[in-house]
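Exercise 3.2. Students should predict the tertiary structure of the chain below and write it as structure tokens, then compare their answer with the key that follows.

Predict this chain's 3D structure.
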Amino acid sequence: MQPKFQPTIVAYNEAGRIALPEGNALTNLCSGARLIMTGDPAALPAALAQGPLAVLTNSLDPELLAKIRQHSSSANPDSAVILLVDKVHIEYTKALGGKEHELVDHIIAVRTAADGGPSAWSNTDLRATLQKLIRSDFFGVEKYLRTGARILSFPITSSKDRDQLHQETTSFATSCGLSQSIALTAKQIVQEMLLNAIYDAPNAAGHRQPKERSGHPVDLAVKDQGRLELGFDGEILAISVWDPFGLFKRETFFNYARKALFRANSEDIIDTKVEGAGLGLMTVYLKSHGLVCNVDPGHATEVMALIDTGTKVRDFEKIPRSIHYFKAIKTGVQSK
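Answer key:
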């Protein structure tokens, strides 16, 4: 039986760019939605008038992306724009005039496999993004992992938990057969995420004094407690920290990611506001292959780092990486 409402995904493939997945492959990734594919800019307005749930494109033309955003949002205010890139952030942000936070919601890195084709990472990331949008179900590391993945969850109740959670992270990574280098990276990511969950997010919600981030012990009230989640499926290591506040704004998220690549003025990087987390988020971004932020405003934030453990690079800062911001319209009904 066909559902009463079937969302629409519009895919626009611009010639000369990294190609979108072809017909059947993209149809499978869009399972549960109606797919409209075109490479003709003249056909885009009619497709966007359908009120798509998401628009997938490889275009780095800021004027075209602005039109896509305008037309799709006019038909569906909750429409998301997904951009596929094979460039590092510092290159595509220049092409977009530093306005990616205005033009797109999701940036998916397409990296090359040994055989010259797209890596498995690219399809995994794209499938997860599309299915999260189609199903309106965003929270949890399992969205990016294969069936049967090993997943552990730990409560965040106090600043006194930090050392134990750091140890749990390194133990998890090494018990999965990952290298000491990856285990250390995972620990560094968790260190930054925990600082946000224990100090910065409660501060931003007005639940605590800013000075306590300096190391003063903090016991979180039950309603303020968060959760650390670790997952591994043999390829992707996923790390997330969830908090019950939902205060992380989209523009702030993209701004921090952009600052990570443009550090000419170090003072501009340091976030002195109560909500903090600027330097920490940039550390997470630069140490992972994918950074995901899921926000249910006023209710929950989940920041997630994804590491493709099969990728070996000498300069981790110069690889294409994915960035995602998903926002719930209201509690329990999530979009973008």
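Discussion points: Residues 8-135 form a domain with the Rossmann fold fold (CATH 3.40.50.2300). The chain has a mean pLDDT of 85.
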